[in-house]
Amino acid sequence: MSEHTTLSDLEAAQDNTTAADVQQESVQNFPEPADAGATETMSMQQALNRALAEVMTENPRALILGEDVGQLGGVFRITDGLQKKFGEARVFDTPLAESGILGMSVGLAMAGYHPIPEVQFDGFAYPAVNQIICQVGRMNYRSRGTLPMPITLRVPSFGGIRAPEHHGESLEAMFAHVPGLKVVSPSGPNEAYHLLKYAAARQDPVIFMEPKSRYWQKGPVNAGADAAGYSPNGSRVVREGKHLTLVAWGAMVARCLQVAELAAEDGIEIEVLDLRWLKPIDAEGLAASVAKTRRAVVVHEAPRTSGLGAEVASTITERCFGTLKAPVERVTGFDVPYPSGDLEDEYIPNIDRILYGIQRVLEYRRG
Amino acid sequence: MADVLALDDTGPAELAGEELRELYRLMVAVRYLDESAIRWQRQGLIPGYAPQLGQEAAQVGSGYALDMSRDFVFPTYREMGVARTVGVDMVEYMSTHKATWHGGLYDPKASRFAPIQAVVGGSVLHAVGWAHGQTLDGAPAGELGVAITYFGDGASSQGDVHEAMNFAAVMKAPVVFFIQNNGWAISVPTERQVAGGSVAARAAGYGMPSIQVDGNDVVAVTQATAAALAHARAGKGPTVVEAMTYRRGPHSTSDDPGRYRTLEEERTDGGEDPLARMRARLLADGIADEAFFEEALAAAKAEEEQIREGINALGPRPGTEMFDFVYQEPTQALKAQASAWREESEHV
């Protein structure tokens, strides 16, 4: 892209930036682990497992249920060892029926429990959609707040592992559209640990979308007491930049960081925003970043049409229309069923496609 | 088909005279309120109603057997008779038919009566989850709270009902699956709905005891439900009770049964009116006399008048309530929508 856009073009384009204060705020919002000595390196699988163990210890009403979550520890081993530690009453295998798992979770919540059901793969959430939409999302409303649904539904999500059909779906837009639900997706081990602990302490249902292609990537996790300053709310700037904001979640965050590295070689400084919460969307966080960079590209694995990228683009446009240098660009999966493993690299936004998207935004000229 | 009544050597407990009179009073109150609700709809007091005419024995009998200090009811939308029997506030219950609030205004937790469900099947699973929660709570056998879930022959076709029965049987959850087989799912008769002709027969496949009971005999229903509750309360797991009854009225106040059944069929297929049947029994056994029946009807009318006045006085809920109960912790986006709605609708 350096052929088309020079750094000085970009610097010139920044002349109207008025958001030095915004940049200051965004730095304050996202503290890195303060004490390097308190961090441990672990995979997202380990971080989730640890978070679940702590939730189960701290909340005696918390229960883990699902298919193969007991002795096997789940097909991704997220619940590994938890049945042994907490007993068969609190960590239990159900028959193979997702509507049953969610419907039963509703009843357990009505009985005062805090169920943490697992749906084994994203595509297996489809049979449970009636319970998720009509019951999990509505019981608090229907009961006028007397029957809260503190259900944390863990869904191994998104693609990238060459899995069979229905094992690589991106359902965030469907869930985010449902009143009564909240939706969150961690991008790495530290986020996974903190966001799961936070979600499991809520009185509202949270769909917790785990990027399964990132389960085995290691990173620092600050699980110590000094993590008290960690903010589980809103989005998080994971790389600061001034020319363009890449908005992503789940596994796409790591890919966008790679893209930012490459762009930096051309002198283009890209800010990467990990949206984290897909409902509610952090409108202020998006606005703060894009007010500074004045350009945005949103990246997701899900099909484009009516995907969450449209909501992100609209949110940005509503707040930053006056200062935007270009329409918000979407780099997404296609409007096709998730393809077989051999083609998934063509489907999931890859580095080239994201770079093309960035280029289109940088080269955009009005009129 | 295993017979749940035969599970315990004790057999069904005989009901005392006052209990029988109370069952009759309840059935009259429910019948009168049910017929009145149709009039309310015709008069424009409520927009719609799902009558339970003919199902008084099934609803009153099963509700009467419950121990509301520890049991919990999971209804669908045609359980007015159960609600009245277990003591749900009937103005707050009927509010759902006035389109005041989906699920009704009553407190489902305090009433131990889950919100009214407009879609059948889904709530059957909730009963299993709640019941398994009683097992986890660790009450000793004999003192377990029991979930009773009401559904019909139509709902029995839903996959959720299969999942619920299988889950409950695998987990030995204290659940009573109470089916009112009333012959019709709107316009589709049982023979085109239930393969094999009986939902209770399916219980054998799950290793559950079951009983098909004469759903127009309030005493038989009470005894069958009591036995099923005792079975669950003792930690022996779920059972199926299928009350064979007949939907004497339309599916709802919008329905036209003339399109799918004749009046002659209604007369012959409906069997004996459960209310007339109980009345004859009380008279024959010398447990009640004409004065008692008149008194029961007068009480039912007085009660209906009070409920009607309550429904009449019930205004729409404030619009803010659209937003108030979506979450325990509302999102900023929702708060913003609520303020915008308020500004634009109330011009504040």
Fold and architecture overview:
The complex is a heterodimer of chains A (367) and B (348). Chain A is of the alpha/beta class. Chain A folds into 2 domains: 155 residues, Rossmann fold; 192 residues, 3-Layer(aba) Sandwich (Rossmann fold), CATH 3.40.50. Chain A has 14 helices and 14 strands. In chain A, the strands form 4 sheets. A 5-stranded mixed sheet of chain A has the order 9-11-10-13-14, sandwiched between helices. In chain A, strands 5-7-6-12 form a 4-stranded mixed sheet. Chain A has a 3-stranded parallel sheet with strand order 3-2-4. In chain A, strand 2, helix 4 and strand 3 form a beta-alpha-beta unit. In chain A, helix 11 crosses helix 12. Chain A is globular and about 65 Å long. The two termini of chain A are 22 Å apart. Chain B is an alpha/beta fold and 348 residues long. Chain B has 2 domains: 314 residues, Thiamin diphosphate (ThDP)-binding fold, Pyr/PP domains (Rossmann fold), CATH 3.40.50.970; 31 residues, no CATH class. In chain B, 45% of the residues lie in helices and 9% in strands. Chain B has 13 helices and 7 strands. A 5-stranded parallel sheet of chain B has the order 1-2-3-7-6, with helices on both faces. In chain B, helix 8 links the parallel strand 6 and strand 7. In chain B, helix 1 crosses helix 3, helix 1 runs antiparallel to helix 10 and helix 1 crosses helix 11. Chain B is globular and about 65 Å long. The model of chain B has no long low-confidence stretch (mean pLDDT 95). At the A-B interface, helix 5, helix 6 and helix 7 of A face helix 5, helix 6, helix 7 and helix 13 of B.
